[in-house]
Design goal:
With 427 residues, the chain is α/β, with parallel strands linked by helices. It has 2 domains: 179 residues, no CATH class; 224 residues, LarA, N-terminal domain (Rossmann fold, 3-Layer(aba) Sandwich). 32% of the residues lie in helices and 22% in strands. The chain is built from 16 helices and 16 strands. It has an 8-stranded mixed sheet with strand order 13-12-11-10-14-15-1-16. The protein has a 6-stranded mixed sheet with strand order 4-3-2-7-8-9, sandwiched between helices. The chain has a two-stranded antiparallel sheet with strand order 5-6.
Length: 427
C-alpha cells in the first residue's frame, strides 16, 4: 500500500465542526412503553381472540427497534394474562447467516431470550406452505413453528423501505411476507423483478392473512432520535387498511441529514442492526435500486470505517461505499454476508470497496477523488456515527454557512482538526 499512501499523503483533511440537527422529539417515555403495548392489545377486538390454552406465536425480526425487549415482554405478559401460552418465533429472512443459531443470536443481542422473556424462543429455517397467492398463483411459505400456532401476533417497526416504494414497505405486511417466510420465502420474493417487489409484499402478506391465524400486530413508529413515537395494535383488517397510513406518517418522523449534498460522507459504522442495507439509504442516498427509490443526501463519495458488533460480520451494504478500511475488511465474515446476497439477489451490496490501511488514508483517498466538488480547496465533508443516530454529527468548514442559515441546526463547536491515533485511526 506504500504506493497509494505516497499518492494521497499530502491530501488535506478539512477542519470539522460539531453540530446538532434538531427534529421533532415527540415520543413515548420508556416507563410507559409496556403499559402502552398492553393498552393497545387490550382492545376487545384483539384481546377476545386470545383464549386460555391457545399457543400464541409472537414474531421478532432482525430490525433494530428501540425498547424491543420491553415491547416483546409486554406482549408475552399480556398473552399469559389471557391464559394462553406464548412463544417467540424468530421471523427474519436470511439474516444471521441464514441459520437458526445465528438468528437466535441476533435476538439475544436485543435482550430477547427465553430467560428474559419467560417463554420459549423458537428458531428454525423450516417453512410450510400456507397458501397460494391469488394473482400470481405462487406458493407462499411461513415459519413451521408459526404455522403450528393457534394464533400469531406480529411485532415490527413501520418505516420507509430501502429498496422499493409502495403501499406497504417495511412493516407488518413485510414481516409476514419475508420475515415469516424465512430464507426460502424471502428468496422467492427477491428472485423476482424488483419492479414488482411492492406488489409481491402485498400479495404474499394478504395470502398469509387469509390462511394463517393472524390475531393482529403491534406497529411501531420511531422518531428521528430513534425514540418510540407511536405504538398501535392493528387487527388483520386494520393491517390492510391502516398500515399504509402509518407508513406515510413514518416518512415524516424519520431522520434525514439536513443538507442536500456533500463531497464526502463518512459513516463510522454499518450493520444489519442499523439497516437492512447496513446503512439506511434514506439517509445516505445510496439506494440498492436507484430507479425505484430516491431520497437522502447526494454524496459524491461514501467512506465506511467499521462494522457494528451486533452485525456479527455481516457487511451487507459495504458495496454502496467507495472506500473502506482494513479494520472493517478484517471483521467481515463472508459466511454471514453472502447468504443475504443469495437471498435478496442484490450481489453488488457485497462488493468490497477500495481498502485503506487506516481511517486517515480512507478519508484522504475519498477527498482526492471528488472531481465534481464545487471547491477543491474547501471540501464539504460530513461524518456520522451510523444512519440510526444523526442528531450529533460533524461537518467540514465548507458546510458551515449552510448550517448557520438553517434554524434546525445548532453549532456546537469551533472548527477543529480531526484527531487520529498513532495508527492513523479515529477510534
Amino acid at each position: 500500500m506504500k504506493t497509494i499512501t505516497n499518492l494521497i499523503k499530502d491530501v488535506p483533511i478539512p477542519k470539522m465542526v460539531r453540530v446538532r440537527e434538531l427534529y421533532d422529539s415527540t415520543n413515548i417515555p420508556e416507563g410507559k412503553i409496556a403499559a402502552t403495548v398492553t393498552s393497545e392489545l387490550s382492545r376487545e377486538v384483539i384481546a377476545e381472540k386470545i383464549q386460555p390454552g391457545m399457543k400464541i406465536a409472537i414474531t421478532c425480526g432482525s430490525r433494530g427497534i428501540n425498547h424491543y425487549a420491553i415491547m416483546t415482554k409486554a406482549i408475552v405478559d399480556f398473552v399469559k394474562s389471557r391464559g394462553a401460552e406464548p412463544f417467540i418465533v424468530v421471523a427474519m429472512g436470511s439474516h444471521g447467516g441464514a441459520t437458526a443459531e445465528g438468528q437466535s443470536q441476533i435476538l439475544a443481542d436485543y435482550g430477547i431470550t427465553e430467560q428474559t422473556m419467560g417463554c420459549p424462543v423458537k428458531s428454525c429455517m423450516d417453512t410450510v406452505q400456507i397458501g397460494i397467492s391469488e394473482k400470481r398463483h405462487q406458493s407462499v411459505q411461513i415459519d413451521k413453528n408459526a404455522a403450528e400456532a393457534d394464533g400469531i401476533i406480529l411485532l415490527n417497526r413501520i418505516k420507509p423501505h430501502t429498496s422499493f416504494r409502495g403501499k406497504y414497505e417495511s412493516g407488518l405486511m413485510k414481516m409476514m411476507a419475508i420475515g415469516l417466510g424465512k430464507q426460502k420465502g424471502a428468496h422467492d420474493l427477491h428472485s423476482q423483478s424488483p419492479a414488482i417487489m411492492h406488489e409481491l409484499v402485498e400479495e404474499y402478506g394478504l395470502t398469509i392473512l387469509k390462511n394463517a391465524p393472524i390475531i393482529g400486530g403491534i406497529a411501531v413508529i420511531e422518531n428521528a432520535y430513534d425514540d418510540t413515537y407511536l405504538v398501535k395494535a392493528l387487527t388483520p383488517q386494520e393491517i390492510i387498511d391502516e398500515e399504509p397510513k402509518l407508513k406515510e406518517l413514518s416518512y415524516k418522523t424519520i431522520a434525514r441529514l439536513l443538507f442536500d449534498k456533500c463531497d464526502v460522507l463518512v459513516v463510522d459504522q454499518i450493520g444489519k442492526n442499523i439497516s437492512g442495507d447496513g446503512m439506511d439509504p434514506n439517509v445516505t442516498g445510496r439506494f440498492v435500486q436507484p430507479k425505484y427509490c430516491s431520497g437522502g443526501i447526494d454524496a459524491e463519495k461514501v467512506v465506511v470505517l467499521d462494522l457494528t458488533d451486533e452485525t456479527h460480520g455481516n457487511a451487507q451494504g459495504i458495496g454502496l461505499a467507495e472506500v473502506t478500511t482494513r479494520r472493517l475488511y478484517d471483521k467481515m465474515k463472508l459466511e454471514m454476508t453472502y447468504p443475504t446476497g443469495v437471498t435478496n439477489t442484490f450481489l453488488h451490496l457485497m462488493k468490497i470497496p477500495m481498502i485503506m490501511d487506516n481511517d486517515r488514508e480512507a478519508l484522504q483517498l475519498a477527498l482526492c477523488c471528488c472531481p465534481d466538488a464545487e471547491d477543491q480547496n474547501n471540501m464539504k465533508m460530513i461524518r456520522i456515527h451510523n444512519t440510526a443516530h444523526i442528531e450529533y454529527i460533524e461537518i467540514s468548514e465548507g458546510l458551515l454557512p449552510l448550517a448557520k442559515a438553517n434554524p434546525n441546526i445548532e453549532i456546537l463547536s469551533e472548527p477543529y482538526e480531526l484527531v487520529f491515533d498513532t495508527q492513523g485511526n479515529l477510534f
